[in-house]
Amino acid sequence: MSDRVIAATNQQAAAMSPDQRDRYGSLVQAVNAHAAHHIPNGRTAADAAR
Hints:
Structural class: mainly alpha
Number of helices: 3
Distance between the termini: 16 Å
Mean pLDDT: 84
Shape: elongated
Low-confidence stretches: none
Strand content: under 5%
Radius of gyration: 13 Å
Number of strands: 0
Largest sheet: none
């Protein structure tokens, strides 16, 4: 799931205007860092389903 969060955040950031990037760029980086932190500790979908 974290991989999808990072991909979606990057896709949204790529569509931002320069003004939006200035305003929200640090938030995008924070969201990606938070999601990336959970990748090594996360559970697989199969584990979560059980």
